[in-house]
Design a protein that fits this description.
alpha/beta; nine-stranded mixed beta sheet; GMP Synthetase, Chain A, domain 3; single chain; binds adenosine-5'-diphosphate; 2 domains
């Protein structure tokens, strides 16, 4: 029996595609630590995100491909990940934040913070290092949504983020006294935001999720300019008036040259006890907006009172009710965002994620 070679293993894995990145695992430099011993082949597949929606498929395909090599008795695949850096310089934020993703909306009350919090928790649950920057200075409610009451005491000149559900978070809501109004305009707003961005000890992050203020006002503009963003997601309700607002949000990102990752439609429908769906706010608006603006549609989130209850009691639905349709929709949206970030980073870095090169 001829010996199994590393070349043969790599040739087999060179036929396994990463469905999002549309290249094979070897070209993408995702195969590591190949070892062959007594007919047992072991190796690591280094994904570009722990939230990869194709994790199970890639593992199975890789295993099957190597099993076809003559003489292989067994295959042990270790799945790991290393999130690529989008390559943008973030001068204000000194610690390495590999990707910064803004969640915006045309108007308040559409579920922007709910999406920010749950996407952040979903990415953290998958194993990514996640930060959540609640920059919604007009209604900073992510502390309530995550059950965070205060920041840890500072140990130096920088603010230490609070930790909850495996992520780090900071919010304007934790920096002002409860009930104190936040009326900031123009230069003052700008400097407050810059300070807020620069003075936080995040540590190394794979993803920083930024919950933007609603609308296209000064605060959103200052933020999007101060922090180079890998991309932005726009949240809308299905009805027409909300779509017009969301369209303005989309245009703001396009003007600022922030890549729009896609549109999320929240409160898409209510599932009735008999399993039928009721479209409280119209139907198909998010998909329609995505189509006419040539933007990707990332998914729709149904209405569920557990979203509000979880929001009010600091228990995000993706952690509290992971099997609910809303949680599944949010996890899928988080995975799509992570995939799109990987695809963009790979494009920027000329086919190979920069921090993956050995
Ligand atoms: P925004 O950040 O856009 O102002 P929020 O995320 O604060 O909006 O959501 C507004 C309110 O609607 C909150 O009370 C939240 O819990 C509730 N909510 C958001 N999405 C849903 C949903 N899919 N089903 C039920 N309630 C929701």
């Amino acid at each position: 029996m001829s010996a199994i070679t590393k070349e043969a293993v790599l040739a087999a894995l060179g036929k396994v595609q990463e469905p999002d990145l549309k290249q094979d695992l070897v070209t993408l430099n995702m195969v590591r630590n190949v070892e062959i011993e007594n007919g047992v082949v072991s190796f690591t597949v280094m994904l570009t995100t722990p939230a990869c929606p194709f994790r199970v498929k890639i593992e199975r395909d890789a295993k099957e491909a190597v099993m076809t090599i003559a003489g292989v008795q067994a295959v042990a695949v270790k799945m790991d990940s290393d999130v690529p850096n989008d390559g943008r310089m973030r001068g204000l934020v000194k610690t390495p934040i590999r990707n910064a993703i803004a969640i915006g909306s045309g108007k308040g009350g559409v579920g922007k913070s709910t999406v920010s919090v749950n996407v952040a928790v979903a990415l953290a649950q998958a194993g990514a290092r996640v930060g959540l920057l609640d920059a919604d200075i007009y209604g900073p409610n992510t502390p309530t949504m995550l059950g965070v009451e205060k920041l840890p005491p500072p140990q130096g000149p920088k603010l230490i983020p609070a930790e909850a559900y495996g992520l780090k978070m900071i919010s304007m809501g934790l920096l002002v006294k409860p009930g104190q109004p936040l009326i900031w305009r123009g230069p003052m707003l700008n400097s407050a935001i810059r300070q807020f961005l620069g003075d936080v000890e995040w540590g190394e992050l794979d993803y920083l999720i930024v919950d933007l203020p609603p609308g296209t006002g000064d605060a959103s503009l200052s933020l999007a300019q101060a922090l180079p963003l890998s991309g932005a997601v726009v949240v809308t309700l299905p009805q027409l008036v909300s779509l017009e607002d969301a369209g303005r949000g989309l245009n703001m990102f396009k003007t600022l040259e922030v890549p729009v990752l896609g549109i999320v439609e929240n409160m898409s429908y209510l599932e009735l006890p008999d399993g039928s769906r009721m479209d409280l706010f119209g139907a198909g608006g998010g998909e329609y907006l995505a189509k006419i603006t040539e933007t990707d549609y990332l998914g729709g989130i149904p209405i569920d009172q557990n979203v509000r209850i979880g929001g009010d009691t600091g228990k995000p639905i993706v952690a509290e009710h992971p099997d609910s349709p809303v949680a599944k929709a949010l996890v899928e949206i988080a995975q799509k965002i992570a995939s799109k970030i990987s695809v963009a980073a790979i494009g920027v870095n000329n086919s190979v994620p920069i921090n993956i090169v050995e």
